[in-house]
Structure formats: structure tokens, C-alpha cells
Amino acid sequence: MKKINIGIVGYGVVGSSVVKILDKDREIITQKSGLDINVKKVYTRNWNRKLFYPIDDSKKAKTVDEIINDKDIDIVVEVAGGIEFPYHLITQAIKNRKNIVTANKALLAEKGKDIFSLAQKYDVRIGFEAAVAGGIPIIKALREGLVANDISKIYGILNGTTNYILTSMYTEGKSFEQALKEAQEKGYAEADPTLDINGTDAAHKISILASLSFGGFVDFSQVYVEGIDKIDTLDIELGRELGYTLKLLAIAKSHGEEVEIRVNPTFLPSWHPLSKVDGVFNAVMVEGNNVGETMFYGRGAGGLPTASAVISDIVCIGKSIANNLGRDLEITSMDWKHKDLTLTKVKDFYTRYYVRFTVPDITGILAKIASVFAKYNISIAAVIQKEKILKLQKETKEKVVPLVILTHTASENNIQLAIKEIVSNKYSVENPVIIRVEDEE
Amino acid sequence: MKKINIGIVGYGVVGSSVVKILDKDREIITQKSGLDINVKKVYTRNWNRKLFYPIDDSKKAKTVDEIINDKDIDIVVEVAGGIEFPYHLITQAIKNRKNIVTANKALLAEKGKDIFSLAQKYDVRIGFEAAVAGGIPIIKALREGLVANDISKIYGILNGTTNYILTSMYTEGKSFEQALKEAQEKGYAEADPTLDINGTDAAHKISILASLSFGGFVDFSQVYVEGIDKIDTLDIELGRELGYTLKLLAIAKSHGEEVEIRVNPTFLPSWHPLSKVDGVFNAVMVEGNNVGETMFYGRGAGGLPTASAVISDIVCIGKSIANNLGRDLEITSMDWKHKDLTLTKVKDFYTRYYVRFTVPDITGILAKIASVFAKYNISIAAVIQKEKILKLQKETKEKVVPLVILTHTASENNIQLAIKEIVSNKYSVENPVIIRVEDEE
After folding, report:
1. Which residue in B has a C-alpha nearest to residue A128's C-alpha?
2. How far is CA B393 from CA A426, B121, B398, in A?
3. The domain at A2-137+303-322 falls in which architecture?
4. Which DSSP state fits A324?
5. Rounded to 5°, angle at Cα A271 from A268 and A275
6. For chain B, what are the domain ranges?
7. Which CATH number fits domain A144-297: 3.90.770.10, 3.30.360.10, 2.30.22.10, 3.20.20.370?
């Protein structure tokens, strides 16, 4: 049986879960894979802290170089996080002809082009199943299982923290701040949850999925990202009345020459499978021209689920190594069309919209707003006007009420122009809340 | 670029969809896989019928031998169906050192042990992604994506025909006969739907999934199978009142040394993700010790979805061939524990039950039935007794009404003993309806 030596950089929750599984489930992994996977060395910045899982002193590396320069190590597993440090380490390891397994979505989304080109040059493989949707084998499904499909759309719930928060706002009526606090107390949100809350984490993941689906690298700085920090419970309630559930969706759609990639809070019809994905679970829908609609669901984070994905990469790449192969077995590279993706500009988004205005409670205001929408060719699908008084307007002490308009499919550009006109005419006394709606017509 | 020659046996809906996709999506499949997949020959019993997709005369084989004896053919794709004919053809092809891709669940469930042993001997691979859940890449997920998991349970909706029928009984109140007729009219049920309706098709599929999950071959004749042909709309309605949806579930659970495999109509709580899988869609839940709960959802049948799975196997096995490898790359064989699975006997099933008795409308009958349940240590979780008169009893012309008992977890043996006693005491004037309930306590 072929022995595969791995070196692990990063010994936090994920790194220690990898070691733990390779210990406790050694027998079944060996039986299934025919490989003897040996953790040769592990590096972490500080060995003098409490470890999640014990490791023999002989395996503790004091420097990263001990791992990337070890001639016997076949695969370097990067589960340290961050960007600069792992970028340096991974590029060095590749130059030493190490295969790489990483859970680092930020790194791959922002520096993927460099890293994958280098891997090509040095004929090594990069496994990144753990970078997207934790334990769900979505990367393998896209690359191999659905290889015979022209993907038109891939979208899903890719961040467990924000889904936990939105679920608790929806089911328990909590405010964003309350829900975030609770998520932190339960360990579902980090002390600094910025990258989760503002949508960046989901955007990293959808950028990776978009590359595999559409065959080119993404300029991450051009991806449209909107988080959930400004979501008001009121909109969740009003959406529910219209038959919608609010989710932070990460979406990538092909429009022929262009690809639309965005992360934004999205109203989904309540019957939609993703609207039932609650709490910290993730789910990804893939639409292929032959397979139709498929969905992959599971735990998107956590030590053991993520380590499950890391080890599946180790096994698959280990099989290549055991047969003295480099990249020969790889199916579906990140740039299989050999052309960077051209992203659709925000003004060219074309979708349905939920717009909540805050309007003075006077006769005729709906007619005025509706006429501006008509002027910009925006067709109205539904309206909710509530008697409930939101508050008194600051200056005039007039009553103001929420007025919600659900549109048919419209262009983002026209929506923005219409809203600008409505606000400048003071038909809405505040900037309206705009939430995109993913619902076929 | 390596050319992979395939020969296809069977040119019905699936076979012609394989050829169609390899034609229309040739460019992307080549870009993703780096392989040139060439359909060298196709065999079907009768070329003088209307074909679903045209094929060049030069590729039409008149005998199967033209394919299995063709030295240039690398992979034989069997999409003919049946058991005896494909068994003969596949074993011959293996002896000629052809790799095999098949969509034939019946063959693999009933003759898998022979076929996989032969493949081992001749060092060829067998791809069967298309045999279970159509286009959903569940086989690859189990073998590779979830390789680092000890699977405790795998269950799901694996037959689209019966799910279409049950969905239409649930949502439209149709009778089984009406729903079946409609399914046949829409092409979702075959003219002879026996193997779908009686649960055999789902049982074939779950047996294959059980082998991969638990690492041994299954004696298919020992698998417990119950179909949906006796399902009454009344039970669907009463189940709904208790918060349950009826699905034909295929279930495989590990109990240490034994594996429980069964297909039966099952009440699932309405919140369960599988209870929302409607119409012809399939879905499989997998519970792994590290990944937790995952679900895979998509179209379980149809030409293009199934062909999508067939081609993913052709690509993966094609990569082996392109690198002059045999079975070297295979991860997770059907008998990775090198021991046949020991199946749990029916009397040792241990689950929750819905039992509908038909009882005379007289005082004290519930107490009598409850006392029999108590005698056999069966704890009652809920009761529905309806005033609605079902019918008059034949002989005595007494009124009879439905009495439903939902139990806590109980042994099948005790349930059967209790029911025997209840019926022999004429507390129930008809044999009760028994439906298993999959709901954690």
C-alpha cells in the first residue's frame, strides 16, 4: 500500500480535525482509498496554546520551511487562513513540486490566477473542495459529476453565519443585532464577523464556483457584493406577506459572453428549495443543460465537515501520486475556456425587485410613484401599503407609512433612475430599501 | 489529446441521449476533460424503428460481438436494460478487458458480486453513476467526496414514478389508480410500471448505495420491499393531520454488525427536507460521522439527466485509460470491507409506526386496543379517532370508523404480535393499515 505523506500548515479547528479524523477513522479511510495517509508534520504559529486535538511532539514543525522543504512530503495542506502568508507558502511549496490541498477561499478567489498558473507550470494539483460549502462535495460534482453539462446558473447559500442570522430573524422576529449576538454566543459567528456579514466570504466562494462553471478566472474586485447588516426585520415580515423568504444568495449566471456574479440579500419564493435551508446549513443549486436542476445540501462550516472535504482531496490527489502522475487526471480546470470571465455590470442586472418606500400618508402618493415606474418601463407585480404608522416625519411631523412595490423583471439601471426621481420628488421621504427577488416569471 | 472509443449497447432514450450530448456538447466536454470521446459503434436489437436521435449508418452494429470484440473500443456502455442479456454481454466484455459503464441497477443489485469480482480479475473499471438517482452524482459523492466518513444511514426518494404518484395523491387528493393513469399519460410511468410501483426499482438502487456505504455485497433476495399500490388516500390525509407526508423511502442503516435495508411507504415529518421533494425528483440523504447530514437532489430519470451521469463515468474512466491504468484509481469498491453485508431481519426492525384500525363505533374499543399495545410494550404517541363513518360492516351492519395510532419507537415483532391479537379479538374488523414512520424522538 502506497504511503502518502502530508504536511499541515495551520492547526486550528480545521487542521486539528483533519488529524483527528485520520486517527480515529484510519481503518475505513485506508480500506476505501487503498492509501496509507501519514501526517508527517504540522505547523502552527504558536504551539504553546491549548490544542483542539493532541499531536506528537515529533510532528510539530517550528517553521513552515520544515514542511515545504521536506522531500518526503507529497501534499501540503493549507488550513491557516489569511492571504499573504498562505500565498507565499503555497507558491513556495508548488515550486518545490508539492501538491496542495487548501480550504482558503479568499486566497483562491483573489489570487487564484497566479496560483493555478504556477501549479500548471510545475505539474502539481490543487485540491480545494473544502474552500466552498464545507463538507458538501460541490467542487467534485461540478468538475467531474456534471462534466457533461453546460452550466447556465449556479447559486446558493454559501455562508452559514449569515444564514443562521437570517433564519433567526425570520423565525423568531429578532433584530439583526440580536441575531448576530446570539450567533456569536453559540459559536456560529466569529468575534469579528465582518467578512461573513458583508457578503465577502460568500462572494469568494461563488467566484470559485463561477470559474469552474464557466471556465475562466474572475477579477474579484469587480464582483458585486452586498451584505445583510442593513436588513430590517420589517422587510422580512413584508416579504413573508408576499410569499417570500429572505436569504443571502450568491449567484452566478451565464449570459453568453458575460457572466453575472453577485452576492446580495434576496427574496426567494417560499416554495423554493433554498428558502427551506435554515440555520448554519449551506446549499448550492446547479442548473445544467442536460442534468436540469440539482441541489447539494449540508454543513457549510465546522471542523469535521471541512476536514471531511480536505481528506477527500488528499485521497484523490494521493491516488495521482501513487500512480506517479501530475495533473494528468484533472478534470475541469478553473480556466477550461482559457479566457477570463467578463462580468456583467451592475447597471445591466436584470431581475425582479422589492422596493420599500417610506411615504407620507396622503392621497395620491401611490399613483405618483407608479407613474414614475411606468415612465421607466418598470412593470408592477404587487403592492402592499400598510396603515401602520412607521413614525412621524422629522421636520413636518407628518405620518409616514411603508409602501412596498414588487416589480416584474426590470433593469437595474431603470430601477435606479426611477428611485432617484421618486426620492428627489420627495414621494419617498427616505431612501427606499431595495431587495432583489429571484423568482421566475 | 487522447481519443477514447466507446461502444454503446442499447439505443433507446438513454443511449440516444448519450450520443446526442456527445454531439451537441462536444466542445465543452473536450475542454473540461481533455479527452476526445468517440462513439465508435452502437448496437440495438432493431434498427428499423424510429430513432430518438439519428446516427450514421457506419456506426450501427448488427451484433453485440461487433462491439465487445472490437480491439479499438475502450469502454462498453450498457444502457439496454434487463438482466440476462446485459449480464452475458458485460461479462464477455470484461473478459475482453473492456471497461464498462452501465445504468443498469437491476443487474448490479442482483448480479453485482459476480460482475465486480470479474472486473477485479481482469483489472477493468465499472462505472455506474447512472444506475442510481439519474443525473445526481451520488455515487461519486459516496465513493470519493465523502470517503473520509463512516456512513451511518443513507436514505432517500429513489424512484420518480412513485414519487410523482404520491405527490399527486397528496396535493390533489387523487386515488392511486387516478394518479398512476395520469403519470402514464404524461410519460412518467411506463406501460408496465410494476417494478416501480412495487418498490423493486428503489430497492435495487438502495442496495447499491448500501454496498458503497457499508462495504459489502447485498443478497438482494433478502431486502425488504413494499410498494405503494395499496396506499389509500385516507391514510395520506390522516398522516397530514399528524404532520406527516407520505413518501416511498429507500433506507439503509448501519447497526454495527448488521445493516437494515428496506423500501417502504414512509411517513416523514413535514419539516424534513425529503418531504418537500415532489414530482419526479429524487433526493438522497447521507449521514456521515464527520460531514453530518448532506442531501443530493435532482432529476432521477429521463434521457439527458441519465446520459449526463453516463458521460461523467466515461470521462473519469477515460482518464484512467489515457494514463494506461486499470483499476488503480478506484476509490471505495462495492466490498471495501471484504465481507458480505448481514441484513437485519424484518422482525428486528425497530421504528415508529402509524397503524390505522377499522373499529366498531362502540364505547371502550380504544381502551381495549391500547391495553394490547401496552401488553407488548408499545408506547402510544398520538391517536386520531374520527367520527366519520367509513362504511357499514358487512355482516352486522354496524358502523365502523377509522382509529389511527401513532407509536413511539417499537419493535416490528411486537407490533405484529399486538396486531394479530387485536384482529383475532375482532377489535379491528379489518386488517389494519401499517405504515412505518421515520421521525426521530
Report:
1. B145
2. 74, 64, 5
3. 3-Layer(aba) Sandwich (3.40)
4. T
5. 45
6. 2-136+303-322, 138-298, 349-437
7. 3.30.360.10
* Alpha-carbon gap, residue A338 to A217, rounded angstroms: 9
Nearest to A308 among B17, B291, B305 (CB): B291
B72: helix, strand or coil: coil
What's the CATH code, domain B138-298?
3.30.360.10
Segment 165-204 of chain B within 8 Å of chain A by CB: none
Residues A33, B13: Cα–Cα separation, whole Å:
35
| pLDDT confidence bin for A191, thresholds 50/70/90 | confident
Q: Which residues contact A217 (CB under 8 A, 6 or more apart)?
A: A112, A113, A116, A211, A334, A335, A340, A341
**DSSP secondary structure code for residue A27 in this structure:** H
Q: Which residues pair with B266 in a beta bridge?
A: B247, B436
* Residue A125 contacts B where some CB pair is shorter than 8 Å: no
Residue B373 to residues A133, A312, B262, B380, Cα–Cα distance (Å) = 46, 48, 24, 8
**Identity of the residue in A32, A292, A296 whose CB atom sits nearest the CB atom of B135:** A292
> What gap in Å lies between CA B286 and CA B295, rounded to an integer?
6
CA nearest neighbour of B103 among B74, B70, B126 = B126
Q: What is the rounded average pLDDT for all residues in chain B?
A: 95
- DSSP three-state, residue B351: strand
Instruction: Specify the pLDDT at position B395.
Output: 61
Pick the catalytic residue from B205, B339, B368, B420.
B205
User: Binning pLDDT at 50, 70 and 90, where does residue A199 land?
Assistant: very high
The span from the CA of B53 to the CA of B18, in Å, is: 10
B contacts of A128 (beta carbons < 8 Å): none
Residues in chain B: 441
State residue B128 phi and psi, 5-degree precision: -140, 30
Partners of B353 in beta bridges:
B436
Kindly report, residue by residue over B64-102, the tens digit of the pLDDT.
999 999 999 999 999 999 999 999 999 999 999 999 999
Q: Which residues of B touch A291 (CB under 8 A)?
A: 135-136, 298-299, 304-305, 308-309
For A82-178, strand residue ranges (E) read 99-102, 126-127, 151-157
What superfamily in CATH does domain B2-136+303-322 come from?
NAD(P)-binding Rossmann-like Domain (3.40.50.720)
Give B349-437's CATH code, choosing from 3.40.640.10, 3.90.550.10, 3.30.70.260, 3.30.750.24. 3.30.70.260
Could you report the predicted ipTM of this complex, rounded to two decimals?
0.95
Q: Which CATH number fits domain A346-437: 2.60.130.10, 3.30.70.260, 3.30.230.10, 3.40.50.2300?
A: 3.30.70.260
**What cell numbers appear for B98 in the block?**
473492456
Q: Summarize pLDDT for A98-136 with one digit per residue, the tens.
A: 999 999 999 999 999 999 999 999 999 999 999 999 999
* DSSP string covering B372-426: HHHHTTPPEEEEEE--S--EE-TTT--EEEEEEEEESSEEHHHHHHHHHHHHHTT
Q: Distance of CA A393 to CAs A206, A361, A430, B114, Å?
A: 41, 10, 10, 80
Q: How many CB pairs under 8 A join A and B?
A: 206
Instruction: Work out the average pLDDT over B186-192.
Output: 89
Judged by average pLDDT, the poorest of A53-57, B276-280, B316-320 is B276-280
From the annotation, which residues of A make up the binding site for L-homoserine? Answer: 190
Element (H, E) at B247: strand B244-255
The three-state secondary structure class of A57 is helix
Residues of B in contact with A331 (CB under 8 A): 32-34, 315-316, 319
Q: What is the rounded distance in angstroms from the CA atom of residue A140 to the CA atom of residue B132? A: 18
- Of the candidates B54, B52, B76, B80, the residue with the CA atom closest to the CA atom of residue B66: B76
**Which one-letter DSSP state was computed for residue A301?**
S
